[in-house]
Amino acid sequence: MNRPAPRTLRTVTGELPAASVRGPVLAHEHLVLDLDRLGDGAAVLHPEHHSAAVTAELVSLREEFGLSLVVELTCRGMGRDAGALARISRDARVAVVAATGWYYEPFHTPETEVGDVEQLAGLLVREAEGGIGASGVLPGVLGEIGSHGDVPTAAEAKVLRAGARAALATGLSVATHAQLGRGGPAQLELLTGEGLPAHRISIGHQDLLDDPGVHRELAAQGAYVAFDTVGKSAYRSDRDRLELLLALLEAGHADRVLLSCDISRHGYLLDEGGQGYGHLFRGFLPGLRAAGADDGVIDLLTRRNPLRFLTGASEEDN
């Protein structure tokens, strides 16, 4: 069954009409996370220890910039906690969309080893329709479904195909993790090869890839190009990110861009000296404005595009 895309957003506290989202959206973030494979506790946002700091940041961004929605892409095998997301959302009074899917192969959970594409797609559909665990929270996006390298491994290709089939069955869109920005064209080919329209796909971490040609190619095919690690200077400077973004905008693809910071460890939080979730608004967008982007472009990049992505709206629906 190919179900039409929804016109409302599935948030962790219930359905929300997309038209009611009047402020900016963070299109790829983590509020709760556990990617710790070294035992050092660095790649963690534990709800017991960090939710107060996370909530405080979201409150500040709602009050200062009107932050209305966070797309939270912690999925299976990444320490997802839907109940904690619901508490943070209610306390911050910022809507949150939760996710389901599988990250890239080192973080795959056991069911991916034994299930085939159709079985894994069925698991995602059941979660989309029945909720995440006992929380009752319905995921509102499939992601961040991942791969690493220029071509997904066999295991990664399997979960990408499963994500595409689940998207077709549920009407949800797919956000990917492209490790260090690589492999986006191969991801898009796999997903569209299953029949999923490109405008329901966001290819992740493209601001880590110094290849404007790939960015234009993805956008020209209709996919969203996620510049979603803004502020992560250890990977790339924001000056370089801005140049890559301006090249994509100048090529006529402003309607294909998503922006976010991908906060993925406690060291990135403001109270631990990091850039915080607000770096997009405080540190990056002022530079984009200085380069000539007006309020309409900023609204397109930070609100209208992510809403169109989440609802699966095509250009004709705009």
From TrEMBL:
Q: What is this protein called?
A: Phosphotriesterase
What keywords appear on the UniProt entry? Hydrolase, Metal-binding
Q: Name one Pfam family in it.
A: PTE
Is Hydrolase tagged as a keyword? yes
InterPro entries with a match to the protein in the record:
Metal_Hydrolase, Phosphotriesterase
Give the record's family classification: Belongs to the metallo-dependent hydrolases superfamily. Phosphotriesterase family.
Q: What is the lineage of its organism?
A: Bacteria, Bacillati, Actinomycetota, Actinomycetes, Kitasatosporales
